[in-house]
Amino acid sequence: MPSLHTSAQTAPTKAIFHGVWTCPDSADFQITGQLPGSLHQTLIRSGQIQDPFVGTNEEKIQWVGEKSWVFTSEPFNKNVEMVFLNAESVQMYSKWILNGVRIGSTSNAFIPNSFYIEELLKPTNNILIVEFNPPFEEESHRLEKAGHPLPGDASRAVHRMPQFAFGWDWGPKLLDISVNGLTFKSSHISIKDINLETISLGEKSAECKVGWTLEGDEGTNASMRWALTNHNGAKVAWGSASGKIGDYSETFTLDFPELWWTHDLGDPYLYRLEVIAFNSSGLLGQTVKRVGVRTLELNTENDAFKFILNGQPIYSMGSNVVPCDIILNRITNKEEKSIIDAAISANMNTLRIWGGGLYASDYFMDYCDEKGVLIWHDFMFACAMYPSDEDFLKSVKNEAEYQCKRLRHHPSLAIWCGNNEVSEGWERWGWKDGLSKSEIEVISSSYNKVFNELLPSVVSEFDDAPYWESSPMLGRGDNNFKNIGDAHDWGIWHDGYSFDSLWTRVSRFMSEYGFQSFPLNSTFKSILSHDSILYSQDFRTHPEIVAHEKHPRGFDIIDAYLEKSHGALICDSIEFGDWAYLSRVIQAEGIAEGAIAGRINQHHCSGTLVWQLNDCWPVASWSSIDDHGKWKLLHHKLKDAFQPVLLHGDYVDQTLNVGITANPGVFTSTVPGTLIVYLKTLENEILHSEVVNLSVTSGKTTWISFDDLVPADIDLNNIVAHLLWSGDDASVVHKASDKVYFVEPGSLNLKKGSIFIKRFGWSEDRYLFEISANTYVKDVELYSPQEGNFSENGFDLFPGASIRVSFDTYDMSTKKMEEKGDPQIFARSLNDFVTK
Known about the structure:
Mean pLDDT: 95
Distance between the termini: 84 Å
CATH architecture of the largest domain: Sandwich
Number of strands: 46
Number of domains: 6
Number of helices: 16
Low-confidence stretches: 1-9
Structural class: alpha+beta
Oligomer: single chain
CATH topology of the largest domain: Jelly Rolls
C-alpha cells in the first residue's frame, strides 16, 4: 500500500510548443514564437512592434489586438504523457486544432481548458494549430444575445476577459493574445479541490472537515487516504475512504490546534494536508496543500462591517491590488512576492483583489497564507452592467465554481465580493439616463441574476467564506454611505473635497479612496524617449507624459490640490520632475490622513483599504508602489499610519488634541505610557513642553487636550508641535510619534539648506545611512536610480538631528556590497522650492 509520502506518477508535465505566428490579414507576415507565451511579447522581442510602455507607442500597437492570429506548431512526437492537453488560461477567443481535427475552443480567460488528445496523436509529425479571434469580432453577436443595453462599457462587458485590458484610468489598452500554463497529463484520474474547513473552535480543540474530489472515468474505483501533519511532520489527524468518482468528506476533532492568524495578531500557522488515491496497481493520484485552522466571520449586525478572526474582531489595514503587468505572461512569483512583502512592511494585514483584473494566482494566495495577510476577493466584474443570457450565465457559473474550489482552502481568503462598483454605477452614475422603464427593469433583472442569485449560490455551495454583493454597498452619492457596509469615498479626487473631509466622512469600512501621483523619476524616465523630458515645463501637454496620465482631469486635479496647500512654493516654470515629486508629497499627506481617521474612529470604522497598492505599467496612478517596485512617499506614510500604536495630534480652536489608539487584539490589557509634547521652532528651539501619563487600550482611542500650549502672539509659520509616546507591554517597548503644523506646508518658514547623507555600514542586504540637515527640512524624499527601497522616507528633520535609514537592495550579500561600493543616493525636499 502506498505511503502518504510517495511521489505521484500522474503529475502534469509542462508542455512547450515551438512554432510560428501568422496573421491571415497579412500573407507575408510570419514570426517564430512559442506557446505558452504572449504574442505582444513575441512581437516586442523580435522588433516587430516597439515597447508599448515607451512614449506614445501604446496607440501605435492597437492593431495587434484587433486582428486574427494563428499559431502553428513545429512537428512533435507522441509520448506516454500526452493524454490530455491542459491550458490554464487563454486570453482571446480561440479554436484548437490537432492534426486537422478541432479538439476544442475557449471563450473565458478565467476557466482552465482540458483537451483530450490521445487518440488523435500520431507517433510523429503532429501539428497543433491555435486560431485566435479578437473580441470585436464576437462583440455584436454577444450583444445581440444579451438582448438589452449594457451601460458602463458594453464593448468589454460581454467578454470574460480581464476588464482592465480594455483600458482604465491607470492602465493602457492592450488586448494581448496569450496562453498560460500549458501541461500534458497522462492519467484520467486525479485528486482535486482538497479543502480543510474549520467548523468551530473550542477552548482546546477544533471541529474540522476535510474534503476532496476524485475525478476519473465512470468505472474508476479507488482507495483513498488523507493526513494532516504539523510543522514537525507529525500526523495530527488522518482518515480513509474508498469508492468511485465524486466528492468525499470527513469530519474530525483536532486537539490543541495551532491557529492561523494575521501577522499583526499572531502566527499564521499552516498544516500540510495530503490526499492520495490508489488501487492494487499502485498510486493513481496525489495532491498536497497547505491549510490553516481558523474561523472567520463577517459581522454586519447593527450596520457594522467587521471581520471576526478566531473570535477576535480585527481592524483591516491595507490596499487594493491590480495585476502586476498588462502583459500577463510576464507576471512572476517574484513580482507578486515583492508587493506582498511591501504591504507587510507597511503594516498592512488585508489586501483586496480588485474585480477588473485577474483572480489571484496560487502563488499569491499561498504566500498570503504563509505571511498572515487576509484577502478580500472580488469576482472579475467591474464598472459595467453585464448580460444574463443562458450562455453567459453558464460560463460565469463554471468560472465561479472553478475559482471557489481552487481558492477555498486558503486561510487567507476572507470574503468573496460579487463585483466592483457595478451597483454603484447603476444607481448613481447616470447609467439609467435615456433608458426606457422596460430596459431599466430587464437590466436590473440581469444584475440580480448574476450578483444576487448565481454568485451567492455558488459561494454558498462550494465555500464557507461570506459573500458580499458589490463593493461599495453604497457610494458617496448616497447619504448612508458612512453608516452601512463598505464604502468608496471619491469625494477627495473626483469631487475635489479637501483631505480634511476624510475625518467627517469615515465609513464603516473604507474599501477604496485615493489620490494620484506620478512614479519616481528613475521609473518614469524608463518610458521616455529622452531623459530631458523630465525637465520639461510644458509637461501637461507633452505627448509622452500625457500618454501616461490616463485620467482626463488628472493634471488639473493635482494642480488644484497643490495650489491650496503648496501654492506659495510653486512657480509657473516648474519642471516635470519637481512637479511629480510634489504630486507624491500631497498624495502621501492626504491619503495617510484618511488611514489615520479610520483608525482613530475605530468605534465606527473597522477597516481602511487604500486605492491602490501597485501598477501594471509606469503611469500616473493612485498607487503607493510604482511599476518598478519603488515605494512612493505614500507607502511610507501608510507604514506610519498602520503601526501597532498610532499617535495623532490635531489643532482646533486653539486646542491641541492628542489621540492614541491600537487595533483590537494587539494588546491583552491597557498599556501604560508617557506622552511628551514639545512646542518647537523650526530652528529646533523648545518653546514649551508637557509630560503626561497616557495609556493605550486595544480597540479604543484615548484623547487628551492641551489648551494653553500655543501663545496667541506666536508666529504659526515657524513652529511645530512634536509628540513622542512610549509604553511598556510585557517588557516590549512600543513607541509612536507625530508632528502637528499650524499652517499649510506652503506657508512654513522653510529655508534653503543642505541634506547630508553618510553611509556607516552594511547589514545583511542593506546599506545603512545617516541623514541630517543644517536647516529644518520637510518631506524629504530619498531616491536612487538603483533597485531597492528605503526603510524610512518622506520624513521631516530638525537641524542638528539625524535619522538612520537603510537602503534595502535585492539579492545583494555584504561581500557584493563591499565590492560594488556605495549606491547613488540623493535627497530632495520642500526646501528646494523656497527662494530664500
